[in-house]
Amino acid sequence: MARRRISAEDGHRALTRVAEGSAGRPELATAVRFTLEELAGLAPGNSVEVRVPPFGVTQCVEGPRHTRGTPPNVVETDAATWLALVTGTTTWPEAVAAGKVAASGQRADLGAWLPLFGRRT
């Protein structure tokens, strides 16, 4: 299981600030890192690497472990899109179709785990 660095209280506070539109860069970074930790806890494993530059990266989803070079299953997106996905304000298919998420590899579809918070479609 992923090691926790951000408390639930701090993570939810940062998510609230982002949702209100009052988050600065530190709160945005905390919200992204907290939600990456949440995803790693919900979908433990090392077969997919999720990147939200410049704020964080995590490995998740059960399957073959990746150890060197570029992983075969990679998801990359910006912070705003990532937070929209995890809070349910956009869906995985919408974000992928709009080109806001780059997902490569057989296991790179995170739709089964998103949103982490908020509505499920």
From TrEMBL:
Residues 25-116 form the Bacterial SCP orthologue domain. This is Bacterial SCP orthologue domain-containing protein. It holds the Pfam family SCP_3. InterPro entries: SCP2_sterol-bd_dom_sf, SCP_3. It comes from the Bacteria.
